[in-house]
Each structure stands twice: as structure tokens, then as C-alpha cells.
Automatic annotation (TrEMBL):
InterPro entries: CENP-V/GFA, Mss4-like_sf. PROSITE patterns: CENP_V_GFA. Signal peptide: none annotated. GO terms for molecular function: carbon-sulfur lyase activity; metal ion binding. This is CENP-V/GFA domain-containing protein. It comes from the Eukaryota. Residues 23-162 form the CENP-V/GFA domain. The keyword Metal-binding applies. Belongs to the Gfa family. The lineage of its organism: Eukaryota, Metazoa, Spiralia, Gnathifera, Rotifera. It comes from Adineta steineri. Keywords: Lyase, Metal-binding, Zinc.
Amino acid sequence: MSSSWQSHPPYSNTKKDDDLIKYHASCYCGLIQYVIYDEFPVDSTYCHCHGCQILQGAPYQWACIFPKTSLYFTSGLDSLEFYNNSENTQNHILPCKVRCKQCSSPLADEGRRMWLAFPQTFKEFRASETIREKLKPSCHIFYGQRTILGDFLKGDGLPKFEAHKNKSKQILDE
């Protein structure tokens, strides 16, 4: 029996020719796997918001943003689990966090039109510097909520914003 979320992108997308695949992504245990057909993300950011810190268990989250239409799930749809932190519910309410039910590894954030993939889940990510360059972040967002202080992030050449990119004040490196 199909859930309503399975009838919408990216879960309902049609498989394209294998030659068009740019990235292979999976959860830690490999139960959930999907491919991305776009070579370059629409954007790529480091998010320092408190929610990402807690839900990722890390000082910030790195997300590569792709249109939902550029993905295809090859396995594990029934093993997906969702969490909407605004409503504190595991229902598929957008925007939401997406993870594997079995290994609990985070896979992405799902927005209304975009899929915020975590490049560390891409098989190709560690393969070459060229791939990492294509996925390189353009900025830091919610930088005012960062937990890493000191010189670690200073001088990385990336713009830093108090909240969303180009919709909030830019923070200058001290």
C-alpha cells in the first residue's frame, strides 16, 4: 500500500538512462539508495542553525541542493523515515528531515521543491577533488548560531549570513 508521499517527487520519479547518473547516494547500511542526475547542485551551503546542529549531531550541516525531479530511488523507499522539527512529528510534512529506519543515518532534508542532499552520502564524494569542487559550498547560513568559535571558519572565503542566504544580514569575518 502506497503512502501519499510516494506519489510525489522525488519518490515517484521515473528512472532515466544510467549514463545520465552523476551521483550514487545511500544511507550508512546501504538499504536506501538513490541516484542524482544533475552534475551541479542549484546551491550548496553550510548551515549552522541550532536544529541542524542537534539533528545532525554536528556543529553544522553541509547540504547540496538539487531539484526533486533530478533524483531516482533505486531501493529502500519503504525504509525511509521522516521528521518535521517545526511540528515535532514523524509524519511526512514538508519541510522535513529524511533518514533510514534501520541505521538512522540522515540522508537529506526535503523541501517543497528541493532536495537538500548530504554530499558525504555520495559514493563519488571521496573519489576525486574534481567532484568535491562541483559540490563546494557557496556560503554559511545561520552563522550567528554557530558553535565553532575562533579562527576555524574564518578566512575560508565564503560569505556568512545571519540567517538565509541573501535574505539576511551578511556577517563579516573579524
